[in-house]
What does this fold into?
Amino acid sequence: MEYALRCIDCGKKFEKDELHTCPSCGGLLEVKIELESVRVDFKFDGINLRVWKYASLLPIKSKPVSLNEGGTPLFKTELVSSSRVYVKHEGMNPSGSFKDRGMTVGVTKAIELGKKAVACASTGNTSASMAMYAAKAGLKAYVLLPAGKVALGKVAQALMHGAKVIGIKSNFDVALELVRRISEEENFYLLNSVNPFRLEGQKTIAFEIVDELGYVPDKVILPVGNAGNISAIFKGFRELKELELIDTIPRMVGVQAEGASPVYRAFREGKTDITPEENPETVATAIRIGNPVNAKKALNAIYESDGLSVSVSDDEIIEAQKLLASKEGIGVEPASAASVAGLKKLEEMGEIQDNETIVCITTGHLLKDPETVVRVCGEPVEVEANLESIRKVL
Ligand code: F0G
It folds into this structure.
């Protein structure tokens, strides 16, 4: 396969995989695959789903650092009675979030480039996933987190997989700025979603949806934080269309939390770039981001697919989390439930047509954030160890 890194602003192309931003204008880079050079060697037959099934569309030449990521379940639900709503549960990836799709590609690229260490800023899931893949690859891992604002399960993973975890007394946006500078100084390979190769892995969500459903859905709804995933999934669909493997692209719907909604606000005002928010706040700590680095790509994905962006309150997020868990048996963390809260919002807005097929992406597993669960559901009741006491509370 032939590819180059292409700047989404000035259009210049570079054949230098270690770049993260355009050396000429500072714009975001994307992997531009010369699709005529690709020999697609997979079939959309609904079997053997996983990230590396689609290797012929991934810009990697070496043996992948893999933990069998991808192949996540697509559940048919009863969330909206008039249409077919599926939930693609990315929380079923090895580290419990969609980030593993990006990390298998990103960490393999780090090895190809001869890097000895990887680094990221994170609201939690990126760090958990990076630490896991770095461990598998034998690389050092450095993580910057907003202190006190990351769900416990995620910190536990990063620590146990052997990353050096540093909490900074600020938010994610500042952590990202700092890790970009330190990575340059120390020659760490940066694995935030500003890294275009990470997004290549994440585009396989689009491939799997088509593979599993056997057709293209009308809408794909997902939470937006640093805005990488929506950009990646859109790119996946766009490549399939350019390859004439599909005829249409779903409308991409980006859901943000009310307290951290720069992409939503830009969309509402018809803008192609955001005004950053200084103090983002939401119960969905995974998407507590005020200055999403991939905002331009995400807005482009939304506009080009005739999509939408909506914002949802923390109460709506928790309500959706409880609904998914108690009615569908799908356990997700708050940020993931934003996709279903967004689905409900679209329903209220009259934006769902009868007989549509909609896929909501739930990005992370319930077990990631046990503290929020205890806050919203309460602690289990405790009683004396005899039947009488148990009967009383049944
Ligand atoms: N859902 C979950 C569970 C996440 O962890 C994230 C991002 C998102 C959604 C948003 O995805 O950033 O591609 O728009 N988490 C990052 C992290 C920021 O550090 O783990 P996005």
